[in-house]
Amino acid sequence: MSQLQVNRINDASGGVLAPISSVMRNRIINGAMLVNQRGGTVTGNDGAYGLDRWKASCVPDGKFTMQQSSTAPTGFINSLLVTSTSAYSVTSTDFIGLRQDIEGLNCTDLGWGTAQAKTVTLSFQVYSSLTGNFGGSLFNNAGNRSYPFSYTISSANTWTTVSVTIAGDTSGTWLTTNGRGICVFFSLGAGSSNSGTAGAWAGSFLAQPTGSTSVVGTNGATFYITGVQLEVGTQATSFEYRQYQQELALCQRYAIKWGGNSVYETFASGLSFNSTTAWVCVAYPVEMRATPSVEAGYANISVTTGGASNIAATNVAIGYSGTKAAGLLVSVASGLTSGQATIFGANNSTSAKLVLTSEL
Amino acid sequence: MYKLQNGVHGEVISVLNTVSGASVPFDPNNTNYQAYLKWLEEGNTPLPAENT
Known about the structure:
The complex is a heterodimer.
Chain A: E1 8-10, E2 16-19, E3 42-43, E4 55-59, E5 64-69, E6 79-84, E7 95-103, E8 120-128, E9 132-139, E10 146-153, E11 160-166, E12 180-190, E13 195-196, E14 208-209, E15 222-232, H1 244-252, E16 255-258, E17 266-272, E18 277-283, E19 293-294, E20 301-305, E21 311-318, E22 325-332, E23 341-346, E24 354-357
Parallel strand pairs in A: 13-14
Antiparallel strand pairs in A: 1-2, 3-5, 4-7, 5-6, 6-15, 7-12, 8-11, 8-15, 9-10, 9-12, 16-24, 17-18, 17-23, 18-22, 19-24, 20-21, 20-23, 21-22
Chain B: E1 2-6, E2 12-17, E3 23-25, H1 31-41
Antiparallel strand pairs in B: 1-2, 2-3
């Protein structure tokens, strides 16, 4: 019997029709910018999440906003839109950008930090009101290994496809745990101390190649990105589309939002411990990366017991919790009866929300 | 700034970040908790918990 051994199938012009490996080919989650549990427009403060898995990473804060956009290239319906909110001149130690941290457990085959480090290719599509040479970098959890990469946008307000191939790092420590494996950073502006040579590994944190275009340097400048993919190999393959529920579940390992579906949506049930505290159990739809935090901004939520309906919650504390379920302590001003069952949920509002996070 | 949070048995079960408003569990894999530990290492002390 004859045997056919190939790495991929190309069309006549060299485009990749079918990569052979199709399971977890793309290490980026929500690369198509579809999942947006929190919603809204978010100010670019360090650690703030806009779309799921995509956060601002910056010093200083507040130089841009980020939101989901329906401006998208063929094959996509969404992108992540960054808008510069001022004409900010970066100082030497500044770095401002978008970032996704890939969990180490999803990088276990890459061999980074060893002689067997695999080459990866980062691909994405961008559209900006600016033109020029832009940049970003890949770096490790400790921020003591980084690889600045450069790409060019030649035409303003035109989708540009970018592909960058990166030889795996044979040095440094790259986590293969549930911590940060590889951090993928798209720079929107950085100072000289955080800029360096493109296309080479450095033994320090570098956010971008020297001389990269500063998006935050132009008030009102826009920058859209989608179709982000990081994969093993020397060539970008077609974007790995996943079923929506699969992509959502991948995101929910790091953040889960309740609320927004109906005005009295139920989140969980529990028990009144005394007149001001209910102990409710929230089961997660997927196992989370770590015991989650209760994200600030919970609103319009309440507790209902046998004797009283919709008592407004004043505080929600994470308590007896793990990676599969949370025991939340919900405070109210008064009105609960010890020992009575409770229902925890929206208080006559589709704006009600509760977000639990175990982000990287 | 942080404030400890008590459980139903009076024990400390989590810590509130009074700046961000997040309630943070004592899980070493939680990045908010890692930030809290760093804050403690800088010599800071959290506010005491109120009784549940």
